[in-house]
Specification:
By secondary structure, the protein is α+β, with helices and mostly antiparallel strands. The chain has 2 domains: 2-127 and 288-298, Diaminopimelate Epimerase, Chain A, domain 1 (Roll); 132-285, Diaminopimelate Epimerase, Chain A, domain 1. The protein has helices at residues 32-42, 75-91, 139-146, 177-182, 187-197, 232-245; strands spanning 2-10, 19-24, 47-51, 60-65, 70-71, 99-104, 107-116, 119-126, 132-136, 153-154, 161-164, 169-174, 202-207, 213-220, 225-228, 251-259, 267-276, 279-298. An 8-stranded mixed beta barrel has the order 1-2-3-4-6-7-8-18. Strand 1 (2-10) and strand 2 (19-24) form a beta hairpin. It is globular. It starts with a strand and ends with a strand. The relative contact order is 0.18.
């Protein structure tokens, strides 16, 4: 049986930048094992499968697979899938669409489409879950995960900390852009430390010209992704954590996050946190996306 697919580069305005994603359309009838095999074949950080929504009023049910496993939520898969689905629908003559709701394992993900000259060029998602703060680790363990010295780890704002708005990451602040450039994953340290924390990935970042400007890198070798060019779910969780630590009780804060630069796939993620009565009640991640390839998969029958 054949299934249509589109690949799209996310969090970039040009092809061959950002984070590539494969979107499998018309995925109804595929088994979970077939979806996993297809995701492994693409070997991107994630592949999505678009299915009919279970609840009336929602746009679609979206399943997200890495090359090794299914995940409940991820950032660039939502942005890229929204752009692909919107373009597919509008190519059939549908009136312009403003928003989508995707059903995912982590909950309903609300998405606002971004347009230029009537064309869909990107999207903004709202994280499906509130900020959850998990375990912290020692400076020594964080440094080991990133192959850095202890002096490269910053703890003035928060300890190396597991955070999630739908998918958990170990967030680690670094002292400088140079430390971020030198970071690389230590597989043995990841294997020793991360599973006990309930995560398989490290999101490292440093401050830029302002506290709302971040430079980031994300490593997940335990999930077959040595480095991820753009990690919307980790960015969302991290800026939610940083917003929660700020003194303002009521504020909407814009964030500018660059990722993927050190691996040659520059990505730009635009964040927005909304805080009320001292609590972050919503976190959003936006970015552009550029379709790259389309075709058909020949899926063996089971």
């Amino acid at each position: 049986m054949q299934r249509r697919y589109v690949t799209i580069d996310v969090f970039t305005a040009r092809a061959f930048g950002g984070n590539p994603l494969a979107v499998v359309l018309d995925a109804q009838g595929l088994s979970s094992s077939q979806m996993q095999s297809i995701a492994s074949e693409f070997n991107y950080s994630e592949t999505t499968f678009v299915l009919p929504a279970a609840q009336p009023g929602n746009t679609a049910h979206v399943r997200i697979f890495t090359a090794r496993t299914e995940v409940p939520f991820a950032g660039h898969p939502n942005i890229g899938t929204a752009v692909v689905v919107a373009r597919e629908l509008e190519a059939t003559g549908r009136a312009p669409i403003d928003s989508f709701t995707f059903e995912e394992k982590a909950g309903v993900v609300r998405i606002r489409l971004l347009r230029e000259v009537n064309a869909v060029v990107g999207a903004e998602l709202t994280a499906p879950q509130p900020l959850a703060i998990g375990s912290s680790v020692s400076v020594e363990d964080a440094a080991a995960c990133l192959s850095l010295a202890k002096s490269d780890i910053v703890t003035a704002h928060h300890a190396p900390q597991v955070v999630s708005v739908g998918l958990p990451f170990l967030a680690v602040e670094l002292a400088s852009r140079e430390a971020l450039r030198l970071a690389k994953p230590n597989f043995a340290a990841h294997e020793r430390i991360l599973p006990l924390l309930g995560t398989d990935a490290v999101y490292s970042y440093c401050r830029g010209a302002s506290d709302q400007e971040l430079h980031a890198r994300a490593f997940a070798p335990l999930d077959a992704s040595i480095e991820d060019p753009a990690t919307g779910s980790a960015t969302a969780a991290t800026i939610a954590l940083l917003a929660s630590l700020r003194p303002e009780r009521d504020a909407e804060i814009a964030w500018h996050v660059e990722q993927g630069v050190d691996m040659g796939r520059a990505s730009l993620l635009l964040g927005r946190t909304q805080k009320r009565d001292g609590v972050v009640h919503a976190v959003h991640i936006a970015g552009r996306a550029v379709p790259v390839m389309h075709g058909c998969l020949d899926v063996p029958s089971v």
